[in-house]
Amino acid sequence: MNGYLEFEKPVAQLEARIAELRSSAEDDSVDISSEISRLEIKSAALLASTYASLTPWQKTQVARHPRRPHFRDYVEHTFDDFLPLGGDRYYGEDEAILGGFAKLGDRRVMLIGHEKGHDTESRLRHNFGMGKPEGYRKAIRLMELAGRFGLPVITLVDTSGAFPGIEAEERGQAEAIARSTEACLALPVPMVAAIVGEGGSGGAVALASANRVLMLEHAVYSVISPEGCASILWRTAEKASDAAQAMKVTSHDLEKLGVIDRIVMEPSGGAHRDHTLAGELLGEALETELASLAAMSSEQVIRQREDRFLSISG
Amino acid sequence: MNWFTRVRNTLPFIGKRDTPDNLWIKCPNCQDMVFVKEYEENLSVCPNCGHHGRIGADRRLEILLDEGYDVLPQPQVTEDPLKFKDTKRYVDRLKQARAKNPHRDAFTVGSGTIEGKPAVVGVQDFGFMGGSMGMAVGAAFCNGAQKALDRRAAYIVVTAAGGARMQEGILSLMQMPKATVMTRRLKEAGLPYIVVLSDPTTGGVTASYAMLGDIHMAEPGALIGFAGQRVIQDTIREQLPDGFQRAEYLYRHGMVDLVVERKDMRGTLSDLLEYLQPQAAA
Ligand SMILES: [Zn+2]
To answer: How far is the C-alpha of A199 from the C-alpha of A63, rounded, in Å?
Structure first.
């Protein structure tokens, strides 16, 4: 069933049944329309209950859903007047990490984030959201620019990880990530990061060392992919579900551990079912967090951010 | 414990020849048989081919610092915060690692001098769970940095890690920004921070404090990189170039200032500290 995840099968069956009834309803007979609305209520309830009790591995599937809203969708539904800026000034333009000026409500901000792409062509162009050194160096450049002009920084994190390749290593992938983390920590302006899909390891933390770290309800954030962890510790990637469980990758787990500050609720059945609403909910949360940081001086902003990371203790 | 058992414990990757007297070890690089005592006296570097073997934290501190240094106490951190269990419980893996190592985790800090110049040296030990970075490693790194700040001394960190301590999940990832807070403080305080990359340094350690030094030194042949070689091969399905991710390769690509042999490390550090003397805070 196209677009449905494995565990959504019962919902998919109900929705298929509803569609079938609809198309077969020649006349709007009372019988059929009441049956349809009964099934619709049932389907909505089933969807809500399914999503209320997702396992960490199921959440990983949702976070990676091909129709999950990505950077460009949030640009459309959360922000206004995005003005993209390109290039790291050393090597090239990496479209896995996008950035530029944008408006969030009345606020002018610097917006930076991973873009995974939504079809084959765009996925290749954005390298599936796996940033290369030039992408992280562009992020550093834009953060420094924002710092100099007093613009708060918002990052949208959505990557399976930084790109593992020969050229990325040659150009200093590790150094670029380390410097990007350092640039986050040095910002004299407020920074809010939102893990919107996958927060994959160093490639994520390089854009998420912020004053406030938000996480979408069904996003995941981890030090290594569940498959990677499973293949090392269990010696088979098939134990990914166990690894996801053991590593504590969900928004609720990470809130308890003090790693994230706020969970941003998603539309019923996940952000991929309603990009507009997902974008609005994220926008409200970002505005609230930026407002709470607005009164701080540069020194306070830096100090709060440092203390935030120094005090994480599990 | 006699000197040989001690050597054996610090050399987990060097197989010993199966002889009753156990006096010889085989170099993993040139396969030459080397007299253990000679090998140890040569700082665990193969006298035949120059292969730099892995060494434990205590030996490393001994090599780098002047006599009479202090070893900082291991910081207290939440143990097994996730109650992690794979095929084995994390607490059992920790217990096992501690039984084989004189220290409670993979990062040990010595505070003293190098040829008279104040220095704090942090050493990551690959022999303890692959040097992996968890909360104890992060906390010890930060303690070392704080000691350098308090003493207005140089901070020198010898890195070695297979990557993150997966059993601590996201909390291991959080050590990257945490350590970076401290490298920034050293910089602001006008103190030098020098990284010595030893074999192997990969993953989140490389992508944080190992690449933020004022000076990067590397031991010859050390494997240094972000992504693991198997991961890269699985992703790009290409042959990796000769010497890929080795110290000399990083030097050629501009990521390392100096490739320095172990026997010259202390002297080179001392030379560097002549130039990098503590400055007034920024
Ligand atoms: Zn040899």
So the answer is: 9
Q: Which of A36, A207, A188 is nearest to A111 (CA)?
A: A207
CA distance to B81, B85, B104, B131, per residue, from B93 (Å): 14, 10, 12, 13
CB < 8 Å to A173, chain B = 207, 226-227
User: In a structure prediction context, what are the per-residue pLDDT tens digits for chain A, which is 314 residues long?
Assistant: 467 999 999 999 999 999 988 888 766 666 788 888 899 999 999 999 999 999 999 999 999 999 999 999 999 999 999 999 999 999 999 999 999 999 999 999 999 999 999 999 999 999 999 999 999 999 999 999 999 999 999 999 999 999 999 999 999 999 999 999 999 999 999 999 999 999 999 999 999 999 999 999 999 999 999 999 999 999 999 999 999 999 999 999 999 999 999 999 999 999 999 999 999 999 999 999 999 999 999 999 999 999 999 999 88
Q: CA–CA distance from B263 to each of A252, B43, B47, B134 (Å)?
A: 51, 7, 12, 30
Task: Measure the N-to-C terminal CA separation of chain B; round to a whole number of Å.
Answer: 49
B31-42 per-residue burial string, b: 16 or more CB within 10 A, e: under 16: eeebebeebbeb
pTM assigned to the model: 0.94
Count helices and strands (H / E) in chain A: 14, 8
Cα–Cα distance between B166 and A253 in angstroms, integer? 16
Domain B54-275, what fold? 2-enoyl-CoA Hydratase; Chain A, domain 1 (3.90.226)
- Work out whether strand B215-218 and strand A262-264 pair parallel, antiparallel, or are unpaired: unpaired
Q: Cβ of B244 under 8 Å from any chain A Cβ?
A: yes
Q: What residue of A is the nearest CA neighbor of B201?
A: A174
| Annotated binding residue B46 | yes
Q: CA angle, B148 as apex, B144 and B152 as ends, to 5°?
A: 175
Classify the C-alpha dihedral B205-A176-A250-A262 as positive or negative. Answer: positive
Q: Is A232 on the interface with B (CB under 8 A)?
A: yes
Task: Tell me, in angstroms, the distance from the centre of ligand 1 to residue B41's CA.
Answer: 15
All structural domains of chain B with their residue ranges = 1-53, 54-275
Q: Is A188 on the interface with B (CB under 8 A)?
A: no
CA distance B96 to B83: 17
Backbone dihedral angles phi then psi of residue B179, each to the nearest 5 degrees: -65, -35
Residue B142 known to bind ligand: no
Structural contact between residues B11 and B101, judged by C-beta atoms closer than 8 angstroms: no
Question: At the topology level of CATH, where does A59-310 sit?
Answer: 2-enoyl-CoA Hydratase; Chain A, domain 1 (3.90.226)
Cβ of B253 within 8 Å of Cβ of A172? The answer is yes
A67 to A2, A10, B80: CA distances (angstroms): 11, 19, 36
Q: Specify whether the CB–CB gap between A151 and A298 falls below 8 A.
A: no
Contacts 24+ apart (CB under 8 A), B28-36: B28/B53, B29/B221, B36/B4, B36/B7
The backbone region for B35, taken as left when phi is positive above 0, alpha when psi lies in -120 to 50, beta otherwise, is beta
CB proximity B228 to A under 8 Å: yes
DSSP A16-65: HHHHHHHHH-SS--HHHHHHHHHHHHHHHHHHHHHHHT--HHHHHHHHT-
